[in-house]
Design brief:
The structure holds two protein chains of two kinds. By secondary structure, chain A is an all-alpha fold. Chain A is built from seven helices and no strands. In chain A, 72% of the residues lie in helices and 0% in strands. In chain B, 31% of the residues lie in helices and 5% in strands. In chain B, the strands form four sheets. In chain B, strands 1-2 form a two-stranded antiparallel ribbon. In chain B, strands 3-4 form a two-stranded antiparallel sheet. In chain B, strands 5-8 form a two-stranded antiparallel ribbon. In chain B, helix 9 (290-296) crosses helix 11 (320-331). The chains are: A mainly alpha, B mainly alpha. At the A-B interface, helix 1, helix 2, helix 3, helix 5 and helix 6 of A face helix 1, helix 2 and strand 6 of B.
Chain lengths: 199, 464
């Protein structure tokens, strides 16, 4: 029995080694909730989920939905071809990513928003009023902020999230979000003749 | 006209940007240390259960990135004369790359093809999501024997092999008594043995400073609360538990200056040698005096820059005019190890140096651009922070052992005096040997050094 068990443990460790993800070994159990799902108290099961996972799905869904909606607006209204191209990419990538998130988060019953949150509603109102280059700059500026926030959110989830599949999602999404942030900063610098926070 | 249009645009955006207050911020545990939710025995059981896998995955990361073999140079020892200096380039190349082929590629190209050696990327903590101070076995044993104080964590072990770390215990040289040479007697300074070693050598103020630097105080992982990583309630740690004998024992930690947890970079303990010449302190914070650093370290190295956690676990706030001043003055007495081939201005004495060392100095001053920041007459520092922008070469946001590869940003220039004594190198200890540092800077600064020039630079650094 114990030999079978250790063979199993070894096999699963190897699988984890390959995936580079170690939710259960890597986490600090001191901060875990007493109701953390798992066979043993506070030894989280890879398929289990914690409060941070649920909150992450909600917050990431909020941001993802807003990125797609505002980018759809930009597909129609942006003047600069590079900005429109950026918007195309955002709609494509984030629509796919949002679907994936919803699939992974389905069992966790996150408190999902029906509409845009108040902040993004306000941004949409501003964008609706803006024209020409003002629109382009306002859109790119909102994308920089959203991607900054999403990057931090993904990193926070990787710091505390439990669910293996969701952690994998965060791990795969983060480099993409970082690349989008770089692109958004490049577009901003281009629109402002070099201003902004491009490194 | 065009400028004013942009100003209008920016002002409009300001209105939109102001919307941030409506959004939900990240949860507090993105910045603050969460309070523990489980009893210590449960935490300990789980930590101990996870430990073998935690250690294994870190070892596999080391083996993927580096050649960790024990291969010391012939005829070269650290300043105490007891430990060898590891030889050769240890960072592994990605398949299909050579050092020369990399040197001829652009950063964008290296990034696109994923050819930046993984050993040049940030090095994760052995257990990144928990972080905290991790001491080498030699320090744990010496303090256990001398003080019956336990520095061993139940969740992690030290992750580097002994041959990749500094000589232990390191020799101690004093600027107020250069006539004496090493005053350590080959022993580790502890709260139990310091007095007899220094009375008659140090002043009363310096001795009191030393006592405080050797006195344990509560720390994030070593304290009396249930939120600790040591089996028994602990008195804590002392400054010189990491800066052993005022040098470094390669104990490591995570930077207190970055959040969230996965983005924090590893910190390899800095030597305190030559403190008298250092104008800025802390790899990120650039504190302007060693007094400031000494005073505030009780909330940073000890408590991860979280004053809330510090207050709960029992922070020691040394009295500025008395205790801080004495601790700082003690640190300022610590000299670099002797460098008999250097003249008073920090240049090689041609009558003592070899041809290879002299060739290395020439590269250091000219083609290698090393002296731009490591200025010989300023103890091989420039009292500045610089951003090497190594992330030009790799994709941001990749995760290795729960650490996210992010840009390092500006880091202070560290001295190169006595540099052979303090492996591993760079602020996080990602480089194992001096030859690795030469390859790193050759690539990051685009120097295109030849093999001979690289060898000469290593020979020169051994003489510093």
């Amino acid at each position: 029995m114990s030999r079978h068990l250790s063979t199993f443990v070894l096999a699963s460790s190897c699988a984890l080694l390959a995936s580079g993800s170690f939710a259960q070994e890597g986490a600090n159990p001191a901060g875990m909730s007493p109701d953390t799902e798992g066979k043993e108290l506070a030894k989280p099961a890879p398929e289990g989920s914690n409060t941070q996972d649920k909150l992450f799905v909600r917050q990431a869904a909020l941001g993802g939905q807003a990125e797609v909606e505002l980018s759809k607006l930009a597909q129609k209204r942006a003047t600069d071809p590079a900005v429109r191209e950026f918007a195309d990419r955002m709609v494509e990538v984030h629509s796919k990513s949002n679907q994936q998130l919803m699939k992974l988060g389905r069992g966790m019953q996150p408190d999902l928003p029906k509409n845009l949150d108040a902040e993004h509603q306000a941004i949409r109102n501003e964008l609706n009023k803006a024209q020409g280059q003002t629109f382009d700059l306002a859109y790119i500026s909102s994308q920089i902020q959203d991607h900054q926030r999403t990057a931090n959110l993904l990193q926070w989830h990787l710091s505390y999230g439990q669910n293996e599949a969701l952690r994998k999602y965060s791990m795969e999404t983060l480099p993409e979000v970082m690349a989008h942030l770089e692109h958004a900063k490049e577009r901003y610098a281009m629109l402002t003749q070099g201003a902004g926070s491009q490194r | 006209m065009r400028k004013s249009k942009i100003l209008v645009c920016l002002a409009t955006m300001g209105v939109i940007a102001g919307g941030g207050t409506l959004a939900d911020p990240l949860p507090p545990d993105a910045t603050y240390r969460p309070l523990p939710t489980l009893p210590l025995d449960v935490v300990r059981r789980n930590d101990e259960g996870a430990k073998p896998a935690v250690q294994r995955r870190q070892q596999s990361l080391f083996n993927e990135r580096y050649d960790m073999a024990d291969r010391p140079m012939q005829g070269v020892k650290m300043s105490g004369g007891r430990k060898g200096v590891q030889d050769g380039v240890r960072v592994k190349l990605r398949s299909g790359a050579t050092w020369d082929s990399l040197a001829n590629m652009t950063p964008d190209d290296i990034k696109a093809k994923g050819l930046f050696p993984a050993g040049f990327m940030p090095l994760p903590h052995v257990k990144q999501l928990t972080g905290g101070q991790v001491f080498p076995e030699n320090q744990i044993k010496a303090i256990g024997d001398a003080e019956d104080r336990n520095l061993k964590r139940f969740d992690v072990d030290f992750d580097l092999p002994d041959h990749m770390t500094p000589e232990f215990p390191a020799p101690i040289f004093l600027i107020n008594r250069p006539d004496l040479g090493d005053i350590s007697g080959g022993q580790l300074l502890t709260i139990r043995n310091y007095y007899a070693k220094v009375v008659g050598i140090l002043t009363p103020v310096q001795i009191e400073g030393l006592r405080l630097l050797l006195t344990p105080f509560p720390q994030e992982e070593f304290n009396q609360t249930e939120d600790r990583k040591v089996a028994e309630q602990s008195d804590g740690v002392a400054c010189l538990d990491c800066h052993a004998n005022f040098h470094t024992n390669a104990a490591f930690h995570l930077t207190p200056d970055v959040r969230p947890q996965v983005a924090r970079f590893r910190l390899d303990t800095t030597s305190l040698r030559g403190m008298f010449n250092q104008q800025i302190h802390g790899s990120k914070r650039s504190l302007r005096s060693v007094e400031d650093f000494t005073e505030f370290e009780q909330r940073t190295a000890y408590f991860n820059g979280d004053h809330v956690s510090a207050t709960r676990k029992g922070v020691h706030l040394p009295d500025r005019p008395n205790q801080v001043a004495m601790m700082a003055q003690m640190q300022n007495m610590i000299d670099f190890p002797p460098a008999p081939k250097l003249d008073p201005l920090g240049r090689l004495d041609p009558s003592k140096a070899s041809a290879k060392e002299l060739a290395g100095e020439k590269i250091f001053m000219e083609k290698g651009k090393c002296a731009t920041c490591h200025i010989p007459q300023e103890a091989f520092m420039d009292h500045q922070m610089h951003d090497l922008k190594a992330e030009r070469f790799y994709k941001l946001g990749q995760v290795f052992n729960d650490q996210v590869a992010m840009p390092d940003g500006a880091i202070k220039t560290f001295t190169l005096r006595g540099i052979k004594d303090s492996p591993p190198y760079l602020h996080d200890g990602r480089l194992m040997t001096l030859a690795d540092t030469v390859e790193y800077f050759n690539l990051v600064l685009g120097l295109k050094l030849t093999a001979d020039e690289k060898d000469s630079l290593v020979a020169y650094m051994l003489a510093l």
